[in-house]
Amino acid sequence: MTFGAPVVAKIRPHVQRPKAACGKGTFDCHMMLEEPKKWVKEFKAAGCDLYTFHYEAALTSTAAENPADHDEARTSPKEMIRYVHNQGMLAGIAIKPDTSVDVLWEILDNENKIENPDMVLVMTVAPGFGGQKFMADVLPKVKALRERYPDLHIEVDGGLSEGTVDEAAEAGANVIVAGSAVFGAKDPAAVIAKLREAVEKRR
Predict the structure, then answer these.
(1) In terms of Cα–Cα distance, which of 28, 121, 42, 118 is closest to 82?
(2) pTM for this predicted structure
(3) N or C: which end of the chain has fewer CB within 10 A?
(4) For residue 98, how many other CB atoms are within 10 A of its CB?
(5) Residue 3 and residue 193: Cα distance in Å, rounded?
(6) What percent of the chain clears pLDDT 70, i.e. is strictly above it?
């Protein structure tokens, strides 16, 4: 875990809480973990607003609710979304580049709204480390999501920069995650402004 709950807790007092769902100040915690349910309460206490877990992990992880706990029962993507919502946070669900977007239709079309995600994250690199090359071949997933769900928050993460953000925004992404492109820039604010502009002009 690159940034644990203690880091979130230290930053939270310096950033005003969002006034609207997914608004300015939202702490979107992307949990690239094998056991995402174990950390929900800890990140809630730290100040997380939007808890994003991986679809793939939710298929195989246990239902244990704390890091030190063990549970033979298994969780599921829908159960994870419901659990995060019941903890008072927004829920995001992520898919890896090699996971078909089709697995999300049943979840997004579910009539039980508490089991609907507030955001879908389409990974544009293989999860694991920063600085990877943007995978444009996953953008059809973003386009399919946008065509089917016009009001859904769709996030992309991995290899996003001034040179790739237009492709992602054109496909329908409205939430952009950029690490290396921002923190490695001489003028991070200018890069952020250009990333934001790419999304705003397509709304």
Answers:
(1) 118
(2) 0.94
(3) C
(4) 10
(5) 24
(6) 98
